Amino acid sequence: MSDRRPASTVDDFFTLRTVVWEGGSVKMIDQTLLPGKFRYVRFSRPAEVAQAIRTMVVRGAPAIGVAAAMGVALAAQRSRATDMNGFLKELESSAAMLRSTRPTAVNLFWGIDRMMAKAKSAPSVREARGALSSEAKRMEDEDVDTNKKLGRIGAALLDDGDSVLTQCNAGALATVGYGTALGVVRTAVEQGKVVKVIVPETRPALQGSRLTAFELERDGIPCTLIPDTAIGYMISKGRVDKVVVGADRITRDGYLFNKIGTYQEAVLADRHGVPFHPAAPSSTFDLRHSHDEITIEERGVREVTEVRGRRIAPRGVSVANPAFDATPPDLISSIITEKGVIGRPLARNIKKVIS
Ligand code: MRU
């Protein structure tokens, strides 16, 4: 049973965590309610975590990676198995359910695989339970540390007075805390630079207006919300100095998979000579696959035909709702990671920096 608890306050948003392993359960901000309501929900079953990922209660590649890992830790706690064979079978069944939630962000699979490897290396069920609980907390803490490192490295690419175009939400809400693309902006602001963020609404799920504008406003970082249709206009009028976006997966051949609309930003940035930088932790790199092997998630048609439950399209109209797109490496200036900035040629340098 999920225990929907009211939020306290958001006064200390900067340090609040999106996903928390606490007292043997998972606590997460319900992002479907933002910006109207700020509320933590608590889950104690892997199926609840899977449903939260599917319905985007928690979303953003690093956040779903950590949430899924916590889902595996919950499975370990609930298991009644007494031998390792039975225990690992139960865990594998929860892992399969969690893996089936969303196909594109590689962090999801990274988080689950890391937990399964931990479970397999434990000598007994009792020790495995303890190890998985500690690993869940470790992954939560590591995420914030990694983003802060990445932020420091990326902030060097931003100049005082820059206007930075982003896409979707690659902020504190897309991670455990601090953010990737918005972590770069946060560090630049902490360093005393004046940086403004241009935030496309990011139809159809509106992560830009609902989440990015919300968290930037909370932190007092200047931002301008624009309709997605204004991106070309803003870039062509010289109102964007740099593009900094997040990533759901970066394949071994240097393709960036990120929220739908990222590719058009990259094409427009290239056309107008604006640098384009994805920011991503090493857990977002997929050295096993190339771009043509990746599944792009197609989400439900109602995200497009309705806005907050109100129909805005004729009944029965044909709809396509791809949630992500792929940007080829020739449109990417460099990639910001916690291990350094990866420059061109991306395919070769990714292998050198990410192991
Ligand atoms: O569908 P979402 O909201 O999970 O998509 C999120 C994005 O596309 C983010 O840009 C990406 O996960 C990077 S988050 C640091």
Gross CATH architecture of the largest domain: 3-Layer(aba) Sandwich
> Residue-averaged pLDDT, rounded?
95
CATH superfamily membership of the largest domain, which one? Translation initiation factor eif-2b, domain 2
Number of helices: 11
Domains, number: 2
Low-confidence stretches: 1-10
The kinds of small molecule bound in this structure are: 5-S-methyl-1-O-phosphono-5-thio-D-ribulose
**Radius of gyration, in angstroms, nearest whole number:** 20 Å
CATH topology of the largest domain: Rossmann fold
Can you count the beta strands? 17
SSE order in H/E notation?
EEEEHHHHHEHEHEHEEEHEEHEEEEEH
Strand content: 15-25%
List keywords for this structure.
355 residues, Four Helix Bundle (Hemerythrin (Met), subunit A), Rossmann fold, 2 domains, five-stranded parallel beta sheet, four-stranded antiparallel beta sheet, binds 5-S-methyl-1-O-phosphono-5-thio-D-ribulose
